[in-house]
Amino acid sequence: MTDVGWTPLRALTAARIGLARSGASLGTAPLLEFRMAHARARDAVHHDLGAVPELEALGLPVVTVRSQAADRRGYLLRPDLGRTLDATASPTLAAHSGAHDLSIVVADGLSALAVERHAAPVLAALLPALRAGGWVLTPLVVAHQARVALGDAVARALGARAVLVLIGERPGLSAPDSLGAYLTWAPVASTTDADRNCVSNIRPGGLGYQDAAWKLAFLLDRMRAIGGSGVLLKDDSERLTLPALSDPFD
């Protein structure tokens, strides 16, 4: 296929397709672009979560906790530490414990950039739907050096029936700032990934803020209705957004 043939296809995807070549090697321009993308992904993994003042404006109290990983190096080398709350978190969370429906945890994960850029816009779109649905929310918890499972301990400490973790996903070569959302009903110490639902690739170049908020609200309401998540919860939300198709046999 000629370069002219690849041009319209490149407009449809962020994947690297139809790259220019020089003999058996990549051309200089695509090679440099690849190296730049790789550098951005590495930088995102090592980036520490900074202040996100937009979270303070969402109308929820904000509580900050840490995992047992002391720093970014420890977090990357010891995934188990990122799943366990630091000892100082227990009294902090205990002060806010009560009868709650949902705890929302904003965790840095493997891309703090994703959290800094996308967590607040997603929540700004989601919170009105949760309030309209009668969800009783805990304070918003910002977790540093955190893995997804840290949200389970947070929810238990706050007395929440369910947890929603917004977390930076592993950076890729097309997006160093992709945000993921993990939903878990009745998290306990033995909860596994089979007990969770995930909505991924939340960012302007992927699943947009409004669409992500709509899907999360749908899944949370369904989760509450059936009293379960993970393999028990089927995502039928796409059916509600597709136009009705005529029956070809009519």
Show the helix and strand layout.
Elements: H1 3-10, E1 21-22, E2 25-26, H2 28-46, H3 53-56, E3 62-66, H4 72-77, H5 89-94, E4 100-107, H6 112-132, E5 140-144, H7 150-158, E6 160-168, E7 179-185, E8 196-202, H8 209-226, H9 237-241
Parallel strand pairs: 3-5, 4-5, 4-6
Antiparallel strand pairs: 1-2, 6-7, 7-8
Describe this structure as you would to a colleague.
38% of the residues lie in helices and 18% in strands. By secondary structure, the protein is α/β, with parallel strands linked by helices. It has a single domain (53-231), classed as Ethanolamine ammonia-lyase light chain (EutC) (Rossmann fold, 3-Layer(aba) Sandwich). A 6-stranded mixed sheet has the order 3-5-4-6-7-8, sandwiched between helices.
- The strand order across the widest sheet is 3-5-4-6-7-8
Distance between the termini: 42 Å
> Any idea what the CATH architecture is?
3-Layer(aba) Sandwich
Number of discrete domains:
1
Here the CATH topology equals: Rossmann fold
Query: Average pLDDT value?
Result: 89
Query: Which CATH C-level class is it?
Result: Alpha Beta
Number of strands: 8
- Quaternary organization: single chain
Let me know the largest β-sheet.
6 strands, mixed
